[in-house]
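Have a close read of the entry that follows and walk me through the local backbone shapes. See right below:
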Amino acid sequence: AAIEDMAGMSILCSDKTGTLTLNKMMIQEETPIYMEGETQYSALRLAAMASKWTEPPRDALDTLVHGAADLASLEEVQQTDYMPFDPTVKRTEGTISLPTGEAFKVTKGAPHVILSLLDQNSHASVIEQCEKDVEALGERGIRSLAVAKTNGGVDGAWEMVGLLTFLDPPRPDTKDTIDRARGFGVEVKMITGDHLLIAKETARQLGMGTNIENAAQLPKLDEDRKPPKNLMDHFEYIEATSGFAQVFPEHKFLIVEALRRGGYKTGMTGDGVNDAPALQRADVGVAVQGSTDAARAAADIVLTKPGLSTIVTAIVVARTVFGRMTSFITYRIAATLQLLVFFFIAVLTMQPAKFQPAGAVDEWPAFFHMPVMMLMLITLLNDGTLISIGYDNVVPNTTPDKWNLKVLFTIAGVLGGVACLSSLAMLWVALNCHEPNGVWAGLGLAPLTYGQITSMVYLKVSISDFLTLFSSRSGAGFFWTNKPSKILLIAAGIACSLSTIMANAWPESMPDGVPTVGMARAEPRELSVIVWVYCLICWFIQDAAKVGMYALLKRYNTFGINDIVAMKKVDPSTKV
């Protein structure tokens, strides 16, 4: 199911940090300070106190702070309590006790979250200045980490210390990867918890468009933690955007749910415990490198390498597999229809005894049938050849794949129908070979024994089946538009050669009471060549009928063959 869903995926909702970007933070010198007496040095020390500085870093931000702060100066500092990072809170907090006896709380996190801790009246000027600084930094693509501490003890009022600024540049291959995904009909939407301006700048650099919105207008889960009843009222809004910023985990879930209900096969990337619901709800949940066990368990695919490039590779592989499955099923239906319908009609309508010439050595049967051994050989060689389609060359579709069984059965019916009609026509001509005014005599060919007719039909059905495979695998194009793999050619060559050899060299016998003899054991000894030429001519007709049927279906959009839910029109703002 994951392969099918990946092949049909039309929208990928991707996290920004670590997936679109390098997740390697680089501290900047610019450090807005809002508390008198503080510096970048002291702000970094306080930020470290809001983490477990004596333990290995827990995330990229801890790595940034631990790498830049003077941790050696914190040897005598004690952390009496700690609140770890939570995506719904978006900050960490530590309760600190200094050697001097002073105690306070310190926190670091998203600026808008930290600002909400301050008294909005007494700190109005600081809040206003900080918001301006965050906006100015965001317009330049610089991210901010806010640091605040309590004043006057653990239960004192929060005061803003300053902003630590850093860069998290996009991965070198991300823009090319997004362009490749777009080339396969997959739109990539950015879903991030970062500030709106940072998200817009990153999207601009990656050519994703700047139609990025914050989470303010997104719906929220009901009290029972289920999607709201009016979720689809937000669908057009969600569909039209290039991404969302400042989102919470529940927003990811609702974005995926809305897109799925809107008809899109939706993919979602994530790495945390809170991403698990969205990963599980998505058609294709992708746990990125370094994900938690919960995210891995909820996802369909787990990446072992960072970035989006692996996902695009998975799309190509999935569509290749989908193409092979389509070829397999189309051929299997067509071959089955040819065999069943041909023998059904031949048994009911063809009565060889009525065509038996005077003086025939063997008595021609009352109704047409073939030895079971020959039917088994047809099935065995067909199945052996069909296995090789798993290694066939496939050109991945540039639009999302989806099953359209009506179209599939129609095309298989055309392929099987032409092959069936050509087999019935050949059988009738062969049975009528002793008629002086018949087609066979008109070609100047020697009359056939019934044993030769049996071998002739066996070879015709076998070769038609093998050639049908090459028409089935080329989709709406002619068979020569998609070069088959060497394995498929070798398998088909072996099967055709064995069928031809057995049809020519079959010993004169009566298997299942049916007169049978190799075609080369009596005149005309070139009979197998005649059958091959006839099969090739019918193959070209069969392939042309397939192409014509595809063109007809697409012209009138029959069975919704053109209705593919693919990516939207490209946002004009992506022209960078």
Notes: Residues 309-349 form the longest helix (41 residues). The longest strand covers residues 157-167.
